[in-house]
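pasting for the record
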Amino acid sequence: MLPSHHTLRAWFFAQPILLLSLTALFWAGNTIAGRLAIDQVSPLAVVFLRWLAVSALMVTLYGRQVKAEWPILKRYLPVMVLMGMFGFTAFNALFYIAAHSTTALNLGIIQGSMPMFVLLGALAILRTPIRALQACGVVLTMSGVAFIASQGDLSRLAELKINPGDALMITACLLYSLYAVLLRKRPAVSGMVFFTVLSVIAAIVSVPVFAIELVQGTQQWPTAKGWLVVAYITIFPSFLSQIFFMRGVELIGPGRAGVFINLVPIFSSFLAVALLGEPFHFYHAAALVLVLMGIGLSERKGKRPAVPPEPASDNG
């Protein structure tokens, strides 16, 4: 006798390793989608369509819960507007623009350094102390980022010869770290309700951002392939990843769940080579090792920084 649909669903949502691995895989897929979007849909159109679709879906599913918890949410609205602007709209805009002038490999590895940017952001904004091991981890991870930005030749940094796409991705990570730090001040509501409000804010903010392309005449509505890219970004890195990640956190806690984010640069590297045929150079391997070693070292002691709802992402 075949198991019922409900039995399979219950089994699936009781598997934290599977859920969190899929989350990392979907976020890594966003780097591939960013590259596939080139010549198929303009970057800021992707941002606008992504958050328009996600917010519509989330409001449909969780609108009533948002209304019920609005008395709590409205007190945090100014902070949430900043979070939606920095963590969702601005990060994604820079991410997809960066994809036009750097590789998916670089995007994924630089994105993997985000926990270190969060540590530095918490130090700068909240004065959260960094332990010695964490400091060593920061140095290792930032060395990996520098290796990627200089394409394995650190002398290029002194000459300011940095790929524009890599520079944009580093800036995107800095903005996302602000969002992650502000998570410490998030309202005490359910994760999906919180994400619903942020997605609506991101959709609203993306309108004037998208207008930049319209004014410049660089706007491109999706081709048939472009719509598939937008659909992937909406469904997998933006929606399903949120559900899977939050369920994973419920099952094994935020500390253990957060470790799975380290899979994003690994999956990104594999997908970039396998699906896009991007060359994997020595400096990619060195940077990947440095980033993962840095993150691993920083996690050996002390409490891990708050894990944001989205890589990448989207991340995601």
